[in-house]
Every structure is written in structure tokens, then in C-alpha cells.
Amino acid sequence: MDENYSVKLSKVIDEFDLESLYLPDLPENILITCTRVNRPGLQMVGFYDHYEQQRLQIIGKVENLFLAGLDAAERTARLDDFFKSSPAGVIYTTSLPVSDEVISLAEKHRVPLLRTAKSTSDFMAALIAFLNVELGPRITRHGVLVEVYGEGVLLLGDSGVGKSETAIELIKRGHRLIADDAVEIKRVSATTLVGKAPEIIRHYVELRGIGIVDVRRLFGMGSVKETENIDLVINLEPWENGKMYERLGLEEKTTEILGIKIPSIELPVCPGRNLSVVIEVAAMNNRQKRMGFNTAQEFNKRLMESMGME
Q1: Which of 55, 118, 163, 225 is catalytic?
Q2: What is the CA radius of gyration of the chain?
Q3: pLDDT in tens, 229-251
Q4: Burial of 5 (0-12, 13-18, 19+ CB in 10 A)
Q5: Are strands 211-214 and 138-148 parallel, antiparallel or unpaired?
Q6: Is the pTM of this model over 0.90?
Q7: Alpha helices (runs of H) in 110-172, residue ranges in sequence order
């Protein structure tokens, strides 16, 4: 999940307001490549099987008390072995005191040494969540991402089908733009995709016949958002006479992105059809399904009962 991407240590330091006790290089030159972190309790007793040195190592009160209970010679040997394993970085939590011996060993083996005032459990949870976002696998898809009634809706379709125009209409109706034309999508967990816009085109929309417009300046800060989970995929396609489109909604379709299946619908486009209103209804219906109520199934059940089939 994390082998192809990296995040600068400087970004981790800034995100969590970490105190730098020793850095072997400028923090922007030190790269973190693993989403997982480790509390090195086993390593402190000499067990290094299956040890991943690319993980950030977290030393909390338990590890610190264990080391304090060792005699000086053994403590130095254990710490020397630990820093010699070249971990990606060592972070002390809860503002624990860090001895000159530890700093000296970090300098000797050129291992970044940091400290935070946060408790160990809270810090680890926040750090893992941050690394999952920063290092998650990602792709860029041609489309538009908007937030509609709190649902992240990814509009896909051929160029010129009306994705950007629909996005503008939704913005005018009080919804928010995340990305137009190119959507950067990251998998941040086994079930969650997050989309955002590339920096260079963030908050911009291209409208054929008009050109590039700045949504944030035209409609205000409330019309844009930096990131959003992708909850629903809507494929816009030109209306084809004779094609059988979904009428009841019983068939549950999905679109797979980065190994995650996202609920999806096909929405035919034709003159006179108010796509923004239809998408609003689709977003609310998708939220209702996630809350456990499926209108199509309920209607089908009532229909079967009226026909005496249940």
C-alpha cells in the first residue's frame, strides 16, 4: 500500500508540532515511506525477527520505564542495537525526558529523534491516519468531484457530455466543488477513497464557450472544498433511444477504483433533463441506502405482497 510513495519528515513534524531533538539532515530531505508504526518493546529485549526498519518507532511510558529498570551497561547495549537497526525515526511521546545517552546514540547512527507532548495512543492513531492519507495508493481520473448534501459524488463520462456544466449548476444550488477535469483519488483505508484536485487547477472549472472560471471567487469560499470521500459514482452518457435504462433501482451497480467498489449509476443525458436535480436525488437516495433503507426493495416487497406472492 505504501511502497511507491513517500512523505517528507518535515511535513510530519509540521502536522504534529514535533520537537526535533536530533536530525541527521534537513527534514525535507528525509522521507517516510511506511504507513505503519511500531512500539519497539520486543526490540528492547533483543527480538528483531520480522522487524521493519522503515517504520517510525514510538517510545512511550512503558518502553521508557523498561529501559529505566535496566542497569547502565545493558541499557546502553539495548539502545545501541536499536539505533543500529536504522529505524526511519524515533519519536518519544508524552514529553518524556530524553537522556544525553539516547541523543548521542541517535547521532552516532544518524537516526532522526523527535518528541511530542501527546499521549502515546492518541498520537499513534493520529499518525497512522495521517500516513494512510499521505502514502495511500492513488490514481487520477478524468471527471468532476462535487459534494452534494454531504455525499461525495464523482461524475464520469466522455468529454463534452456536460460534467462541468452540471457541476456549476450544483454549485449555484448550494453544493460544493472539489475538483473539475482531473480528480486525484487516494485509497486511505480498506473501504474509503478520498478525492481532491491537483494544485494547479484547484477551484477552477472549464466551461466550453466561456473558458476557465474561478469558482471560489465567483461563488465564495462556501462553494469549494479541499477533499471529499467518494460515496457515489455517476456515469453520464448521451441518451440512446431504445436502450433499457434502470427504472426501479433494484440492480446494485458498482464501480471499482483502487480495489474498492463504489455504488454507481448510469445517468442518461438529453436536452431538457435537469441533471442537477436528478443528481441531488441520487445523492440523497445513496445516503438513505447507507442508513439502511432501500426504496426500490421496499417498493418491490409491497408490490409482491399486493400480488399475493408473499
Answers
A1: 163
A2: 26
A3: 999 999 999 888 877 777 666 67
A4: middle
A5: unpaired
A6: no
A7: 120-135, 163-172
CA dist 274 and 294 (Å) reads: 24
Residues 140-168 have pLDDT tens digits of 999 999 999 999 999 999 988 889 999 99
E strand intervals along the chain:
7-8, 19-22, 31-32, 37-38, 56-59, 89-92, 113-115, 138-148, 151-157, 176-187, 193-196, 204-207, 211-214, 227-229, 232-238, 253-257, 260-269
Query: Which set of grid coordinates corresponds to residue 64?
Result: 521508557
Given the residues 181, 202, 216, 287, select the one marked as catalytic.
181
Say which amino acid occupies 141: R
* Residue 181 annotated in active site: yes
Q: Is 301 a catalytic residue?
A: no
* CB 171, CB 209: distance < 8 Å: no
Q: Which of 61, 108, 142, 172 is catalytic?
A: 142
152 touches 177 (CB < 8 A): no
Under a CB-based contact definition with an 8 Å cutoff, are residues 151 and 198 in contact?
Answer: no
